[in-house]
Amino acid sequence: MLDSVDRRSLLMAAGTAGALSALPSPAFAQAAAGGNVKEEMAPAGFDPAPFAKQSIKFAVIGLDHYHIMGMTAAVQRGGGKLVSFYTTDPKQIADFRAKFGDIKLAKSEDEILHDKSIKLVCGAPIPDLRAPLGIRVMRAGKDYLSDKPAITTLEQLAEVRKAVAETKKKFAIMYSERLEVKAAIQAGYFVDQGAIGKVVQTVNLAGHRIGNVDAGGRPAWFWEKERFGGILTDIGSHQIEQFLYYTKSTTARVVASQTANFNHPQHPSFEDFGDMVAVGNGGTGYIRVDWFTPDGLPTWGDGRLFILGTEGYIELRKYVDIAGRPGGNHLFIVDKKGIRYFDCKNVILPFGPQFVSDIIHRTEVAQNQDEALLTAELVLTAEKNATRAILA
User: Fold this and answer.
1) What is the pLDDT of residues 341-362, one digit of tens each?
2) Domains, the chain, ordered by start
3) What secondary structure, in 3-state letters, does the chain show?
């Protein structure tokens, strides 16, 4: 039935629904409730102690996006021992060593791939190079953790799936807006506990700041769609992964999508806006991504997530609360118990320990391989089928 609905009308309706779901803001909600909002500190939630003695050797190849810093730190938290890295860019070398110490700089990629003691390679090269690198890593007998988007074409996706099946190695993707956000981890605990009943919809609003482009703040590849894959493929991969995770969907499709370049005519292949509607066997999702975060916001973006359940709802303000609370990782829940606010700064991030354990024991606790690649398939298909929005 949804396929027969006019795409533009569906997106307009979904956009309206997404906007309405954000209202009233928690500040207004608190006033309406007469200040009757219970404020709590979320507990740690995860015990890393059982993982404390595990260890693997890992290396890094490709530092074109500095997400690699967080990825490397996550693996270290899980027991990974960083033994070497490879890049040819002097600034990347200096920045990486400034954060992680005097780590060995490999002479070549092959030096790392041929080192049998290395079990995992983390990579954040230019996006269109990530899947080919991962395939080489897996065929060298190692697991791979890529920055997102890890795959920029459907042809690459087919090659990745073939290599995973043949090598039995992991092609993991760091969807950090869930895996490395404490409020998002706490939201998962609430969903698993049934605090809001059955999840029926997620709404993700994911604004990003583009930065001072006149000062050369972005590399050339950032503006080239064939390099970054398009805005839905790139930023949207975070949000589709969250839709699948919180709705517990194992199959899904994107029923409508659109992209636009509203404000950067000097870069004609760039996309600064996109949205999409997804339907899965566990729920539905609406996603809006953009590069319009204003300079006045004191962080890089105002990522918000709304999770609607049959018995309540959750709102996350991941990186900033424009209502005035300091810091990030703010969670609001309205359920059978009332209205509650949770500061999630003490929640422990489980991905690193779980992922290293998965490598050692060949399990899929930190990330399910099928879900990681389904995420890529959905955003690639959405990008391919997107309507181009043009302002009058």
Assistant:
1) 999 999 999 999 999 999 999 9
2) 2-43+178-351+381-388 (3.30.360.10), 53-174 (3.40.50.720)
3) CHHHCCHHHHHHHHHHHHHHHCCCCHHHHHHHCCCCCEEEECCCCCCCHHHCCCCEEEEEEEECCCHHHHHHHHHHHCCEEEEEEECCCHHHHHHHHHHHCCCEECCCHHHHHCCCCEEEEEEECCHHHHHHHHHHHHHCCCEEEEECCCCCCHHHHHHHHHHHHHHCCCEEEECHHHHCCHHHHHHHHHHHHCCCCCEEEEEEEEECCCCCHHHCCCCHHHHCHHHHCCHHHHCHHHHHHHHHHHHCCCCEEEEEEEEECCCCCCCCCCCCEEEEEEEECCCEEEEEEECCCCCCCCCCCCCEEEEEECCEEEEEECCCCCCCCCCCCEEEEEECCEEEEEECCCCCCCHHHHHHHHHHHCCCCCCCHHHHHHHHHHHHHHHHHCEECCCC
